[in-house]
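As a warm-up, study this chain.
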Amino acid sequence: MSTKDQLHTASNRDARRHPVASVAVLVPCYNEEKSIEHVVRGFRDSLPDARIYVCDNNSTDRTKEVAEEAGAIVCTEPQQGKGNVVRRMFADIDADIYVLVDGDNTYEAAAAPRLISTLVDGTLDMVTGCRVTEIREAYRPGHVLGNKVLTGLVTSVFGRRTRDMLSGYRVFSRRFVKSFPALSRGFEIETELTVHALELRMPIADVDTAYVDRLPGSNSKLSTFRDGFRILRMIVSLVKEERPTAFFAGLGGLLAVLAVVVGWPVVAEFLETGLVPRLPTAVLAASIMVISVLSTMAGLILGTVTLGRREMKRLHYLQTPPVRSR
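Now compare it with the structure written out below.
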């Protein structure tokens, strides 16, 4: 039995095991006319009681019309970028469980009951659909490598608790969604979602799901290098915001080393002759060392501020009860 067949079997076994008060399927879309009907119908079949929302992000094709004809609830978000769409949908849509999936029909709709069952069984807050495929064109080697590198960077700082940080297929509890600040604009949103869960030490899990190639005529909106750089920039920003002591102390350490390298010849000459003939170099080294100390002190102060922010986010998160089956 192939990997995809095994995953389908598991999905069917777990289907409808845990009825919940409400499930919302969120589908951000930009020019997905070719695939959106398949996505909507696939989730209508696997989650017949769920409400399916398609949020159109300035599409220039018939994405909105096709989604409406397929039975989805269609909304629009004029600010371009997947992060903007997710922020809008998280803010406007109420449900007990949220299924977030891309509109390109590359993710397995039949796996949704299994992901929801995992969330409810374990009283979790996020379940990530980790991509498994035997199709080289669906998940290109460059994307696989980039995902592993970026996931490794994040998990090395915030904790190794997920294998596919950039997956666009996830299931969330209500308390995750309503405590998530959603600051990203584009494809960095997956990184922010992962770090939010790791930073608050939420209970999460990974579930393998089949990943397939796009339909003919459907093109990927992800730019390998441009969006990869944006994701890397988001990681650096999140490290600065959530780990300021380590970030600024590390920067201060590098500056201190630079100050010693620049200033050591001046110090050695002073010890030997008692003179400081290279005054500009001495001033430069001293200035770099002062900046190093200031950077380290800023990191210590911001670490205390970040702890208070984290406590406030945790308290807000705890105001919403966990998801339980009826």
